[in-house]
Design brief:
By secondary structure, the protein is α+β, with helices and mostly antiparallel strands. The chain is built from nine helices and 30 strands. A hairpin with a 3-residue loop joins strand 19 and strand 20.
Length: 550
């Protein structure tokens, strides 16, 4: 799990002095002056205290205590040292809480505490949406819900609307309230899921611990969930809130399917059509539409869209030449917004121009399957150890843990720009070699992609395990990138595995998912080399490197 940024200059806890009224006694009528500060004990120090007590929506915000154990991607048979973090959540009714997915990532224990209570209650995760950075929690103890009222969701705010962020950030133990206004509403990169969804930018302070806390409008309605900030030397007070449109999509997805299925994607790489000569060459009569540069082979749209098509409409909504669509009354927003409103399995009607002819084509929408996933399903990475060679699929968490400098430019380019050619395809690498007599000469290998085993192209880690198990040849011949060869005596490799396993205290030479029977998909492996943009046309200029969780 990525570490939260610590906030410098956090306020210190106030220490109670020796003066003041005693417990249960009335306060004397007096005035104290200290360094020009005048305090009149006749007057209440919080004039709106009664009003704050009447704002019951604050009582629906709870503090989250989570213990995490992150997988060790370099040593995938074990986990890292556990650590703890705190965040925020709020009640949404039906015995459920809503928070951020990164607040409960790799959780082993989750506890929540209500405002004004000193007892913590155990919670569990019902659904986790990595793309939208949302998680649904439940608390079974009925005592926790006694006398509580859930929050009500409000509409999508407008620019300059007042917004109040409530949560439990660092700097103290009690609830915190900060205020600001809505600065911008547009499709925004989500740092946790590295996806592009609708986001609300605000200037209210969002700090570590605010994650998962609600943002309210002036009517006390929840208009979103605080989740990340943009930090840069050139920018200040840029925080982000997940709007209720994304929240409702997540909740409806869970109610409909009993689990989180994700936000669908069209699966195409697009280009703007601002240049008149480009539009004329494509026989586009108006200044609308965006050019299809490439279609992902695993996307359903590959059966109806071609390279060179121009998408002019999506479900009847016209698409501009800059890749934007109408939004509300006088605004425009990135084309990605329309696809994010759909659910997995929905059908969309595309209006396209192909070689000067206009036509309408239907396509099914599904969430995109990344060749190099940004999150590991199940939490624990797959691995296979053969004669000390540790094989594992390439993932973004692995790259983050290993540091990009040790990966090599060619492998990084594949991770960033290659696309899947069939369902279940993976880039399988040898992350390291556990030194042993059987692998002499190979012990310095690391972070290299395996291409073939005994002449057969490797489809994924499960396929590699199947090839090793069914091999009857004298040698195991692994072919790596740039024609690097590793040849092992099959019988010696099998005999050495138990010694290597015992020496390095490894519980098993393969992960539990590789113990299941392998089912061949009968797909041919194609050469990887074409680049592919992660998202269709977007209208943001911020890099996700500066986006940090709150």
């Amino acid at each position: 799990m990525r570490r939260f940024d610590e906030v410098e200059g956090a306020s210190k806890k106030r220490r109670s002095g020796n003066g003041g009224g005693g417990g249960g006694g009335s306060l004397a009528s007096s005035t104290r002056k200290d360094k020009g500060l005048s305090v009149d004990f006749k007057e209440p120090q919080v004039a709106d205290f009664d009003d704050l007590e009447e704002d019951k929506f604050l009582n629906a915000v709870v503090k989250v205590y989570c213990t995490h154990i992150r997988p060790d991607y370099g040593l995938p048979w074990q986990k890292q040292r556990q650590h703890s973090s705190t965040g925020s959540a709020f009640m949404i009714g039906d015995g459920k809480l809503l928070t951020n997915a990164h607040c409960v990532e790799h959780d082993t224990q989750i506890k929540v505490k209500r405002r004004g209570d000193d007892k913590k209650y155990v919670a569990k995760v019902l659904a986790r949406g990595t793309e939208c950075d949302l998680a649904l929690l439940s608390v079974e103890n009925e005592e926790f819900w006694r006398g509580t009222e859930p929050l009500q969701f409000g509409r999508l705010p407008c620019l300059q609307d007042s917004v109040t962020v409530v949560g439990y950030p660092l700097g103290g133990d009690t609830i915190s309230v900060t205020k600001g206004v809505v600065s911008r509403i547009e499709v925004t990169p989500y740092a946790h899921g590295t996806s592009d969804l609708l986001g609300v930018q605000i200037d209210a302070a969002i700090n570590a611990g605010n994650s998962g806390g609600p943002a309210f409008n002036e009517e006390g309605e929840c208009i979103g969930v605080a989740f990340q900030v943009f930090r840069s030397d050139e920018a200040e007070n840029i925080g982000y809130v997940i709007p209720t449109t994304v929240v409702s999509h997540f909740l409806n997805d869970y109610r409909k399917n009993g689990k989180y299925t994700g936000f669908p994607c069209l699966g195409v790489l697009l280009q703007k059509l601002e240049n008149p000569a480009l539009r004329e060459s494509l026989k586009v009569p108006s200044s609308e539409g965006i050019l299809v540069r490439r279609v992902e082979p695993t996307a359903p749209a590959s059966s109806v869209l071609r390279k060179g098509d121009v998408i002019t409409s999506f479900d009847g909504v016209s698409v501009g030449c800059e890749g934007t669509v109408p939004f509300r009354s006088t605004e425009r927003i990135a084309f990605r917004y329309l696809t994010s409103q759909k659910y997995a399995g929905d059908v969309a009607q595309l209006g396209i121009i192909r070689e000067g002819n206009f036509m309408k084509v239907p396509t099914i929408l599904h969430p995109r399957k990344h060749l190099v996933p940004f999150n590991v399903e199940g939490g624990q990475p797959s691995y296979l150890i053969v004669a000390g060679l540790v094989f594992t699929p390439l993932t973004e968490p692995f790259i983050e843990e290993e540091c990009e400098d040790t990966m090599g430019l060619k492998l990084l380019a594949k991770a960033r720009y290659s696309l899947s050619t069939f369902e279940g395809e993976q880039i399988v690498i040898v992350s390291q070699v556990l030194a042993n007599d059987v692998n002499i000469g190979y012990e310095h290998m690391g972070n290299q992609q395996v291409i073939k085993l005994n002449g057969t192209m490797v489809k994924n880690i499960h396929h590699l395990a199947h090839l090793v198990d069914t091999c009857q040849d004298k040698f195991l011949t692994f072919e790596f990138e740039d024609d690097f060869l590793v040849v092992l005596d099959r019988e010696e490799a099998t005999a050495a595995s138990s010694d290597i396993q015992k020496e390095h205290a490894i519980p098993s030479v393969r992960s539990s998912d590789l113990l299941e029977p392998y089912v061949d998909t009968n797909h041919e492996v194609q050469n990887q080399g074409e680049d592919f943009g992660d998202s269709p046309v977007t209208n943001f200029e911020l890099g996700v490197d500066c986006l940090l969780w709150a």
